[in-house]
Design goal:
7 strands; binds NADP nicotinamide-adenine-dinucleotide phosphate; alpha/beta
Length: about 250
C-alpha cells in the first residue's frame, strides 16, 4: 500500500473538471500537489488557494503539455519545488469534434498532440526521476471513447485508444523498476467539457447509461486514488468509471 501523505503528485490540466477533483483528492490524502494549467491561470490559482486553505501544499505551474519543452519544464518546476516526484497524473485533454468528412488535418493533429503526445512528453520527462528512485505511479486519464469509438470523435478516440496502448507498453517496460502505469476510462462526466454537449444530446446520452446518470469528477478522482493507494499489484490496466455505458 502506497501512502499519499508526503507524496509529490503532478496533475496536468488541474485547474478545473476532473483534474481539479483529482488534485483535491490527492491533497485531502496529504500529498503535495502540482496544479498544471495551459491557459487558465485564474482557476488553477483558485484550486491552489483552496488546497492551501485546508492545510495542503500546492503550487500552480503553467505549461502547455502538448509542447515537449514545456512538459519537461513542468517536471523541472516540480523537482525545483519539492525535490522529487512520486505520482504523475496525465489528465489534460481537449476535444475538436467533427465527422471524418469535416475533420481537418489540423483538428486531428491538435487533439492527438495534446491528448496523446502530451502524455508521452510528461512521462518522458518524469521517467529519469522514477527510474532513479526505483518507484513511481503513473495514471493516465483516457476515456470510454478510447475503447468504444464515438460518432464525430475520430481524433479524440484515436488519442484515447492510443493512451491505453501506451499504458500497457509502459507498464511492461517499467514494472522491473517498481513503476506502475494505469489508465482510468471515465464515461460521460459532469464537467465543462460535458457542458458543451447540446441538451437534446444529453437526454439521449443519459438513456444509454445503465446507472441512469452521468458521473462526477469526484467519482473519477476516487478511482485514481484507489489505483495509487491500493493498487500495488495493478499495472497496465484501464479502469472503467462509466456507469455501465461501455462494458
Ligand atoms: P475540462 O473541464 O475541459 O478541463 C480540461 C483541463 O485541461 C483544463 O484545466 C485545461 O486547462 C487543461 N488543458 C487543456 N489543454 C492543455 C494543455 N495543452 N496543457 C495543459 N493543460 C491543458 O475537461 P475534463 O472534462 O475535466 O476532462 C479531463 C480529462 O478527462 C480529459 O483528458 C478528458 O478527455 C477526460 N474525459 C472527460 C470526460 C467528460 O465527460 N468530461 C469523459 C471521459 C474522459 P487550460 O484552460 O489552462 O488549457
Amino acid at each position: 500500500m502506497a501512502k499519499l501523505e508526503g507524496a509529490v503528485v503532478v496533475v496536468t490540466g488541474a485547474g478545473r473538471g476532473i483534474g481539479s477533483a483529482i488534485a483535491e483528492e490527492m491533497s485531502a490524502g496529504g500529498a503535495s500537489v502540482v496544479v498544471n494549467y495551459a491557459k487558465s491561470a485564474g482557476p488553477a490559482e483558485e484550486v491552489v488557494a483552496r488546497l492551501r486553505d485546508t492545510g495542503g501544499r500546492a503550487i500552480a505551474v503553467q505549461a502547455d503539455v502538448s509542447d515537449a519543452t514545456q512538459a519537461a519544464r513542468l517536471i523541472e518546476a516540480t523537482i525545483a519545488e519539492y525535490d522529487h516526484i512520486d505520482v504523475l497524473v496525465n489528465n489534460a485533454g481537449i476535444t475538436i469534434d467533427r465527422t471524418l468528412k469535416n475533420l481537418g488535418v489540423e483538428d486531428w493533429n491538435t487533439v492527438v498532440q495534446t491528448n496523446l503526445s502530451g502524455y508521452f512528453y510528461t512521462l518522458k520527462a518524469a521517467l529519469p526521476h522514477f527510474l532513479g528512485q526505483k518507484s513511481g505511479k503513473v495514471i493516465m486519464v483516457s476515456s470510454f471513447v478510447g475503447k468504444m469509438g464515438n460518432f464525430g470523435q475520430a481524433n479524440y478516440a484515436a488519442a484515447k485508444g492510443g493512451i491505453i496502448a501506451l499504458v500497457k507498453t509502459a507498464a511492461i517496460e517499467l514494472a522491473r523498476s517498481n513503476i506502475t502505469v494505469n489508465a482510468v476510462c471515465p464515461g460521460f462526466t459532469e464537467t465543462e467539457m460535458y457542458t458543451q454537449v447540446p441538451d437534446h444530446v444529453k437526454e439521449q446520452i443519459v438513456k444509454r447509461i445503465p446507472l441512469g446518470r452521468v458521473g462526477t469528477s469526484q467519482e473519477v478522482a476516487r478511482a485514481v486514488r484507489y489505483l495509487i493507494v491500493d493498487g500495488d499489484y495493478i499495472t497496465g490496466s484501464s479502469l472503467d468509471i462509466n456507469g455501465g455505458i461501455y462494458m
